[in-house]
Amino acid sequence: MKDYFHNVAQRVAAAVGSAWAFFAALLIIGVWLVLGPVFGYSDTWQLIINTFTTIVTFLMVFLIQNTQNRDSKVFHLKLDELLRAVKPARTGFVDLENLSDRELDQIEEEFRYLHQKYGDSMSPLHRNLHERTTRVACKRGKKHRKPRRSNSVSHRGNGA
What we know:
Largest sheet: none
Order of helices and strands: HHHHH
Structural class: mainly alpha
Helix content: over 70%
Low-confidence stretches: 144-160
Distance between the termini: 39 Å
Mean pLDDT: 79
Radius of gyration: 25 Å
Shape: elongated
């Protein structure tokens, strides 16, 4: 069921995001406007477009949310792989999406400070930040372990 919904959501999102769908929506609105005088701009005439747009909007919210959730997950997995594969990267940042907003704001402020003070060079503050994010992740029950190496793909390092 989940795969079926995903496939339908992907197809519908691609179709609705196309130029053809936009022009089809314009055509529907145009037909509705032309029919206004025929129905005397009645409550029924208004109810037709209101009901149609409400139903479409309601259904699209779920489809769009599904595709955004999937895209976000894929994006995070790709970034996690980059963090794992690049030797000097801090793998403690893999679970940043699980931190609280307050913790993320603190990390953001530290990066601003580091960027202003050091640019891209490493500093003791970088190491301190890495230790603190690792400690926060461990407190949340996230164990840092070395990722398994794939035999089929060669990696430069695991970032640990």
